[in-house]
Amino acid sequence: MLRKQLTLSFLVFALLAGQACSGGGNLEAPAGSKSQPKFKPGVNFFSPEQDVEMGRQSAEQIIRETPMLDDPQISNYISQLGAKLVAKAAGEKFPYQFRTVATKEINAFALPGGFLFVNAGTIAAARNEGELAGVMAHEIAHAALRHGTNQASKQRIAQMGLGILGTLASSGEGADLGGAVSAIGGLGANLYFLKHGRTAEKQADLEGARIIAEAGYDPRDMANFFKTLQAEGGQRTPEMLSDHPDPGNRIEYILAEIKNLPVSANPTHTSPEFEQAKARLTGRAPQLSATSQLRRIGKDPAHLELGARPQRPTGKFKGFQSEDGSFALQVPANWDTLKANSSNFIFAPKGAYGKIPNQSEDSMMVTHGIFVGVMEVRQGDLASATRAFIQRQLETNADFQPIGQIKETSLAGQQALAAAVAGPSAINGVAEIDVTYTTVTSDGRMFYIVTIAPEDEAEAYKAAFQQILRSLRLAK
């Protein structure tokens, strides 16, 4: 008997999988969207109008029972970012609304009809606007693809069997909302709306990646946020992970999808508005102000757009030797040389370096390139000196963290150490990887090279960094 019931239920789902209720069968891309979503809504006993009304009632219940963030600046920012993403969302043209929940939990969720909630903890955890946009686009995709009422419909079939089909079919298109809501168990259906299967979650990830790509963001930032969730999961599983696919799998299939998406050559990664909103939540000063855009030395900073990527390293190299003769190396021919003093230099492409706001004239910030220099150290051995050098990097970049342990390597034919740190760039919020190489000079000082590149461009700079390291010569 059990076998027959399972077989019959499977047959019902097979018959309904390609159907939708009135108004839900075809997805039409709104103005501004370049493509249709790849996914169609499955079985759904509700009209899009009922999605909106049920979502509205459920949202009102959540707002009554859950503390909302009372901060107009942050609320306006989330609404504006949401509107930017909705403009690229295909599917039903719901009247999307966005609210911010006053909790530190990392989570966001969408109710039917386009009622979206973003936890304050998600804004605080995001390292840049691209990561936050990825979370919001994922939830917008759930609403656009009508996953909430699709899930509620399937749950009700599982609970009541075929009898519910006759009840809903006899109600017709003119059925009122009360009857429709009662059919799936009243407003307690919130539980159904928010419990998506892994197939729906993957669809929302891929459709969300398309949305942010068309909105001018980099889907890699969306994937990077899953790395944040993985890190959080090491302490206590974030609510956002409780019913979602493994973050590692999500990263893999989003990165694989990028080749099919219209990703900008110079995508937006962050904005002053995001940094200000995050600063209001974390109590820390914003890392990015309206005037802290990358600037070329001696040039008007307005000539550079925030988020623009500098020219990649050329295959041609030029030689360089320090004035004191302590070292010589080769750097890409299209990189500039910035002198800190006679034995400390910065090599970087145009558009990748700038003065640190409110600091001395020789204080520089770099997003792509290398720091090179020789320095006196008090520590009696290279390992201690290197640890102290890395610690200073972490102190001046509070959001950076070490990657692994200090490792032994070779540099200029002699023993050396290597250590890596990573975190969001204070200039543009992009995830950055800095690798420091150190060794001892013939006169007992410490020589260092720090390679700097965004995580998503690391491969493009790898060959240049390797050539620089191979070319290094130290005075004997």
Q: Keywords, please?
A:
elongated; seven-stranded antiparallel sheet; 39% helix; 476 residues; 15 helices; Protein Transport Mog1p, Chain A; alpha+beta
Describe the structure.
The chain is of the alpha+beta class and 476 residues long. It folds into 2 domains: 2-260, no CATH class; 301-474, Mog1/PsbP, alpha/beta/alpha sandwich (Protein Transport Mog1p, Chain A, 3-Layer(aba) Sandwich). 39% of the residues lie in helices and 20% in strands. The chain has helices spanning 2-16, 48-65, 72-86, 120-125, 129-144, 147-160, 163-171, 177-183, 190-193, 198-214, 219-233, 247-257, 272-282, 382-396, 458-471, and strands spanning 97-101, 108-111, 115-119, 317-321, 327-332, 335-341, 344-349, 353-355, 364-366, 369-375, 401-411, 414-424, 431-440, 446-454, 473-474. It has a 7-stranded antiparallel beta sheet, with helices on both faces. Strands 1-3-2 form a 3-stranded mixed beta sheet. Helix 5 (129-144) crosses helix 10 (198-214) and helix 5 (129-144) packs across helix 11. Mean pLDDT is 76; it is low at 1-34, 164-194, 234-245 and 286-307.
